Backbone:
């Protein structure tokens, strides 16, 4: 019987150890003879959680821009967004030599809408201002950027536009045609385009690189502030923004005047800085019956891990942390926000010390990713044992900070390469919302599986 008991204990131990993550660390003794190993049942600990105010300020490192104002029917919170954008000039850019009259026949900005939230027929007013100060391509910009530092609010806008996300000024046949891409078209004064053409004639070097163009001092070269003046009910996701300049030139091949066009596009090589303003978040932060996730730049969830309760004399084989989502209270609204698809669990201090600014990725040691599981209506971090190891070590060696056992849950967007490896991690700027089990009423549970070693003399 003793032999059977030993064999059974050994098999259970092996199963528990091999079922853990490859990166699993241990607390306590790392290596012991196999015949000293006895496994014990898992323990469950309460985790304290609370909503964490972002304060409208997260790193705005995204190629997408956002424009609109939308009130969440589930929570009653409102978010408003507009943006600043520079425009890229391709290297060694040239105009034709034979532009008729060296003048512009049309110039406009096109904001291409890849997606939207809300009512496509909601009406908005937009003002476009030329920037008077160049955005620094080496600087980090945040979602609470102050546009007044980059344009003169006393100047008149270069253009204004009333728009809806679904452009009702075009025919239905065009709107539903395969070649049409939904956009907001903003006409600029033609003399602005003419000044750009003449600026090229005076000094072509101003157009030889993006940097030279940005520093040329020509109209529109520093970019625009697209200021939302009024409107409510929708938010547009703008993935492409470009300035098109049209002119007539003499075509030598066909011996006639022909319409030509050049583009200046907003790309990742130049700055696009979106500003977000959240309203009515206070009531969510005060709600102690749950915690919240709101993106973009709204609310994270903060968890305090019960590391002091961990038995450091045993080995932690695995530690699972699950955050369950409450179902929406509003079921019938056609404008409900999406659920965050991916969450980053990261230490509070690491986030404050530049996790995103330093282009960090999750490492399954101090930061982890979890995707929403619709079957369980939850986010599951399957094994955070290494994180607990680091926290205990810091507490024992005296290097623990005030926030040593606190972590944040942050909605994120991942970028993958051809092998599906994650190569970039940014804040999620899409409009999402979730209410999680937690707060003061229902505690989040952390399940820990231990192994303990007993040496017999």
Residues:
């Amino acid at each position: 019987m003793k032999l059977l008991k030993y064999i059974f204990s050994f098999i259970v131990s092996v199963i528990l150890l091999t079922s853990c993550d490859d990166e699993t660390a241990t607390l306590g003794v790392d290596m012991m003879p196999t015949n000293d190993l006895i496994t014990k049942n898992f323990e469950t600990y309460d985790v304290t959680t609370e909503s964490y105010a972002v304060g409208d300020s997260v790193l705005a490192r995204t190629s997408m821009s956002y424009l609109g104002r939308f009130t969440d029917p589930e929570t009653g919170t409102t978010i408003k967004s507009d943006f600043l954008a520079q425009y890229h000039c391709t290297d060694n850019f040239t105009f034709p030599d034979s532009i008729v009259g060296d003048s512009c026949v049309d110039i406009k900005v096109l904001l291409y809408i890849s997606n939207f939230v809300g009512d496509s027929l909601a009406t908005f007013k937009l003002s476009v201002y030329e920037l008077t100060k160049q955005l620094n391509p080496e600087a980090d910009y945040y979602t609470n950027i102050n546009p007044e530092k980059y344009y003169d609010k006393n100047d008149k806008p270069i253009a204004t536009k009333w728009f809806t996300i679904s452009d009702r000024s075009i025919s239905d046949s065009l709107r539903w045609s395969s070649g049409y891409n939904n956009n907001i078209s903003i006409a600029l004064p033609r003399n602005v385009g003419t000044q750009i053409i003449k600026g090229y004639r005076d000094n072509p070097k101003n157009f030889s690189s993006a940097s030279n163009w940005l520093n040329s001092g020509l109209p529109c070269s520093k970019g625009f502030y697209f200021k939302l003046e009024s409107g409510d009910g929708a938010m547009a996701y703008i993935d492409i923004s470009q300035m098109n300049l049209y002119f007539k030139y003499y075509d030598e091949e066909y011996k006639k005047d022909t319409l030509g066009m050049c583009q200046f596009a907003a790309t990742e090589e130049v700055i696009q800085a979106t500003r977000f303003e959240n309203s009515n978040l206070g009531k969510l932060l005060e709600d102690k019956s749950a915690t919240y996730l709101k993106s973009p730049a709204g609310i994270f969830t903060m968890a305090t891990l019960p590391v002091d309760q961990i038995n450091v004399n045993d080995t932690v084989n695995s530690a699972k942390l699950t955050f369950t989502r409450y179902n929406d209270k509003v079921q019938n609204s056609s404008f409900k926000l999406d659920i965050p698809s991916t969450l980053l669990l990261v230490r509070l201090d690491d986030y404050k010390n530049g996790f995103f600014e330093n282009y960090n990725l999750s490492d399954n040691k101090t930061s982890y990713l979890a995707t929403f599981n619709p079957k369980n209506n939850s986010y599951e971090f399957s094994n955070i044992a290494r994180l607990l190891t680091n926290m205990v070590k810091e507490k024992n060696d005296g290097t623990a900070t005030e926030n040593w056992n606190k972590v944040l849950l942050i909605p994120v967007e991942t970028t993958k390469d051809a092998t599906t490896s994650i190569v970039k991690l940014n804040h999620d700027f899409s409009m999402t919302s979730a209410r999680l089990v937690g707060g003061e009423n229902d505690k989040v549970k952390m399940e820990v599986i231990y192994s303990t070693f007993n040496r017999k003399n």
Summary: The helical segments are 2-18, 172-175, 190-202, 210-214, 282-286, 348-352, 385-397. The chain has two domains: 2-54+281-453, 78-278. The CA atoms of residues 2 and 8 lie 10 Å apart. Confidence is low (pLDDT under 50) at residues 1-25, 27-32.
